[in-house]
Amino acid sequence: xxxxxxxxxxxxxxxxxxxxxxxxxxxxxxxxxxxxxxxxxxxxxxxxxxxxxxxxxxxxxxxxxxxxxxxxxxxxxxxxxxxxxxxxxxxxxxxxxxxxxxxxxxxxxxxxxxxxxxxxxxxxxxxxxxxxxxxxxxxxxxxxxxxxxxxxxxxxxxxxxxxxxxxxxxxxxxxxxxxxxxxxxxxxxxxxxxxxxxxxxxxxxxxxxxxxxxxxxxxxxxxxxxxxxxxxxxxxxxxxxxxxxxxxxxxxxxxxxxxxxxxxxx
Length: 266
What we know:
Blueprint: E1 25-31, H1 39-45, H2 48-55, H3 60-81, E2 90-92, E3 98-100, E4 109-115, E5 118-124, E6 129-135, H4 151-158, H5 163-183, E7 207-208, E8 218-219, E9 221-228, E10 231-237, E11 244-248, H6 251-260
Parallel strand pairs: 1-11
Antiparallel strand pairs: 1-5, 2-3, 4-5, 6-10, 7-8, 9-10
């Protein structure tokens, strides 16, 4: 499934709790600077591990970005789980992929990615997902990373007709590979040249070979998207991708959620 280049219509989320079907996927767009005034609140929502991680950043702008994206992630997850954001217990799989201890709450899978001042959260009630976004640097594209890609991916990039096409394909392959690794919860401990992703538009049910993951090849569904001309992304699902919804985590949604819920202190 590929819709990169097609217009996506982002809308403010509905009030209150949000239900999601197993095959459906919700995308949340977060523009971090719009929520900087809520930095103190977002910090209060974090657990001890997240606060320690935030304090480990040497640069203040990186610390602020971490607090905002993780605090907003908790707010987003809370409307699916119907629980206070600060009470959500986030755990890590052995490969580093975060997940929610749901207990008797609805099962959800999610993935978070950010680039500069933008973040994307993907939420589903079904199979594990991974999402990645990258800011396209046309003035200094990181062509050095191409040597770490699989041979067919390298060939596709090298054979592109122009520098712009090479840059576009580099980033498209990059986000597909990162999203694939996130979906499978293995992180960047897997060599990027040990598996291949489609170098053309992926279609539903593509089988992406993954010889380093010590398992049979999985059938994945992929969704390419663009947030802007220079911000590209990909979502990979370990199951079929069903209906998609696109939500904007706006300041008004934050305020409305805070006012309508006794679970978030104002």
